[in-house]
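2024-03-11 09:14:02 INFO worker-7 job=invfold-0412 stage=load source=structure_tokens
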């Protein structure tokens, strides 16, 4: 029977999640939109379970697709090896300072290279490659094709230092299953690696894992500090090195217990029309445009592989909860490490995809403290990409509550004096406000929703009961009020 310490792959993760009552099964869905639509309905449920799709139309039983792997606190806590009984508040508290500790200790957990692993149970080479042999979904009705890479980990290396990067980039199947476009944002570490390989050798080696312990999706989908390998970062979370095998062609690593992986080369002149695709902003990202496309020369997979699906869309979507929790912890940790005093909490709101709306709670200690916190948070490396609003609030405001944050803005922000903008900052090609072909800049606002520093002592008192009084009435009538506080 699998325990938290025994999880070594996606199957072990599924076994434990299933025993905890966290998995639901759907049989007979079609890869063409039905898997995506069923997943979308599930994301909107309170504390959605994981969904495992089997008997996919047009594919043999056993080839499965998993979605909503980390859609609630219990499964995210399990994935991060923090426990299996955490609720939202306990998860956030447990994560405090963890990202910084993981980053500091990652180098102690270099990957462990092994000769073989379950991922090599089947090897498909060269002209026999066909990604459509697997139940690759068309996730959204308006997507331009079938996307095999949503919960993936794309591996690249720095050609000079050998440092490995894992990124979660969307991948559309191309050329009848023989290739896959990889849509990398220009400012990401993987894209920098690819440019360096092009300049050095005229092509870039790439491996991709398409089904794995969801922990690899966490580290691939959040901003691990530059110069740190995501696999080493995963190793420190696990408390043991990640086992990898080397690809036959490029020598790049592949997680040894991966369900499904591909290997090949990117070339600067090899681009295919890609998109549109329903993105994490909640919109389809433009039309179609030429995107670097991987010439897939090897496919490695276990018997009856499980694809890890993580399609974005209008929040809440597959990984919006995971990203909100992880980004909140990473940004708070980074903000504290700048030396800024009085940081009480940070929350990257799910409505903004865990990126576009940040709330920062501070205990004001000097004039200008609130603005300093807002400007720092807006440009931290862990927060800068696609950020649009940073709202700074007092410690009596719960930064995780969108209602409380908006209430503070409505009652403590003077629009003429307390909203400042930063222009030509780091945006994204998926921003629906970006004009086609325009550089991916964005503008962000820092909103001071704190009590005015000059009126801290005289500002009107909030009309709400004290915590002690609320606790008292909750204890007195627990059958009626037990879940309310």
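2024-03-11 09:14:09 INFO worker-7 stage=emit residues=485
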């Amino acid at each position: 029977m699998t325990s938290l310490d025994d999880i070594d792959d996606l199957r072990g993760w599924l076994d434990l999640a299933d025993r905890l009552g966290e998995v639901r099964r759907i049989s007979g869905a079609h890869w063409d939109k039905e898997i995506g639509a069923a997943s979308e309905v599930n994301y909107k449920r309170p504390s959605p379970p994981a969904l495992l799709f089997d008997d996919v139309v047009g594919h043999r039983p056993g080839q499965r697709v998993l979605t909503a792997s980390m859609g609630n606190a219990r499964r995210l806590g399990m994935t991060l090896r923090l426990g299996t009984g955490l609720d939202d508040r306990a998860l956030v508290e447990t994560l405090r300072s963890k990202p910084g500790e993981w980053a500091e200790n990652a180098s102690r957990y270099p990957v462990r290279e092994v000769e073989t692993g379950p991922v090599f149970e089947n090897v498909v080479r060269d002209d026999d490659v066909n990604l459509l042999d697997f139940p690759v979904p068309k996730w959204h009705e308006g997507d331009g094709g079938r996307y095999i890479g949503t919960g993936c980990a794309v591996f690249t290396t720095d050609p000079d230092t050998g440092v490995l990067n894992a990124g979660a980039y969307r991948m559309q199947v191309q050329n009848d299953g023989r290739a896959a476009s990889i849509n990398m944002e220009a400012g990401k570490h993987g894209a920098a690696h690819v440019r360096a390989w092009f300049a050095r050798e005229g092509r870039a080696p790439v491996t991709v894992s398409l089904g794995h312990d969801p922990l690899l999706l966490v580290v691939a989908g959040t901003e691990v500090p530059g110069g740190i390998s995501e696999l080493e970062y995963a190793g420190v979370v696990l408390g043991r090195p990640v086992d990898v095998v080397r690809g036959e062609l490029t020598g790049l690593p592949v997680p040894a217990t991966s369900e499904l992986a591909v290997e090949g080369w990117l070339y600067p002149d090899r681009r295919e029309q890609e998109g549109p695709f329903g993105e994490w902003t909640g919109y389809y990202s433009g039309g179609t445009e030429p995107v670097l496309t991987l010439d897939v020369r090897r496919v490695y997979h276990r018997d009856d592989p499980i694809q890890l699906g993580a399609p974005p869309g209008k929040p809440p979507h597959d990984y919006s909860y995971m990203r909100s929790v992880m980004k909140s912890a990473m940004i708070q940790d980074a903000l504290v490490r700048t030396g800024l005093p009085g940081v009480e909490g940070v929350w990257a709101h799910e409505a903004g995809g865990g990126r576009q709306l940040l709330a920062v709670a501070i205990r004001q200690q000097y004039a200008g403290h609130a603005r300093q916190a807002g400007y720092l948070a807006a440009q931290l490396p862990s927060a800068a990409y696609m950020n649009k609003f940073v709202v700074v609030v007092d410690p009596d405001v719960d930064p995780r509550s969108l209602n409380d944050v908006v209430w503070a803005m409505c009652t403590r922000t003077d629009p003429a004096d307390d909203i400042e903008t930063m222009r030509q900052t780091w945006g994204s090609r998926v921003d629906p406000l970006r004009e086609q072909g325009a550089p991916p800049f964005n503008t962000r606002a820092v909103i001071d929703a704190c009590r005015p520093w000059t009126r801290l002592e005289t500002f009107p008192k909030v009309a709400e009961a004290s915590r002690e009084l609320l606790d008292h009435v909750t204890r007195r009538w627990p059958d009626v009020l037990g879940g309310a506080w």
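2024-03-11 09:14:09 INFO worker-7 stage=report msg="The chain has two domains: 88-308, 320-468."
2024-03-11 09:14:10 INFO worker-7 job finished
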